[in-house]
Amino acid sequence: MAPGAERCMYCGDNQGTDIDHHEPMARDPLRTFDWLNHLLACSHCNSHHKRDRFPVDEHGRPLLIDPSVEDPFDHLLLSLSVGEYRALTEKGVQSIEVFGLNRPILARGRQQTFDVVVMCLRQWPDAVSGKACTGRTSWYTSSGSSPAPTSVRPCCGKWSCPARR
Question: Residue 133: is it exposed, middle or buried by C-beta count within 10 angstroms (0-12/13-18/19+)?
Fold first, then answer.
């Protein structure tokens, strides 16, 4: 959550094109023009999932994580191998549900990123030792399965790499 420029403050998708009123205008009209209540969001989180939903506890305190003032990882744990968030608190539970943080496309993207990082870390010793380029790499997914034909990549990225020919 809140990963950077042009990213949704809730799910981290790179389609952050909407301005969300974190606390909906219907709940508190006085916050309509409050700068701190405006967060960049993707249309999925803002229009398809959250809309005017704003759960509160029995004392009226918000149960959604505000990524501009709270550390989301106080409330969420990212399970890297499956790309899904796990709730650590009630705010985590509500945020996962309201924003749809475990949508399949998001979980798949997180899992693929994890797989690429693991692949790079496995190749690091060869890269720093200067071993010759073989033109191919083999890597495994987080589930341990063998690579699909589309998962074979050039091993070094250099123009002289045989895999680029």
Answer: middle
Q: Where exactly are the structural domains of the chain?
A: 133-165
Identify which of 85, 3, 5, 11 has the alpha carbon closest to the alpha carbon of residue 47: 11
Q: Which amino acid is at 16?
A: G
pLDDT tens for 119-156 read: 888 888 877 776 655 555 554 454 555 444 444 444 55
Which pTM value belongs to this model? 0.70
Q: Are 108 and 89 in contact (CB under 8 A)?
A: no
Please enumerate in sequence order all residues whose Cβ is within 8 A of that of 123, keeping only pairs 6 or more positions apart, or say none: 137, 139, 155
Q: How many CB atoms lie within 10 A of CB 49?
A: 19
Residues 145, 81: Cα–Cα separation, whole Å? 13
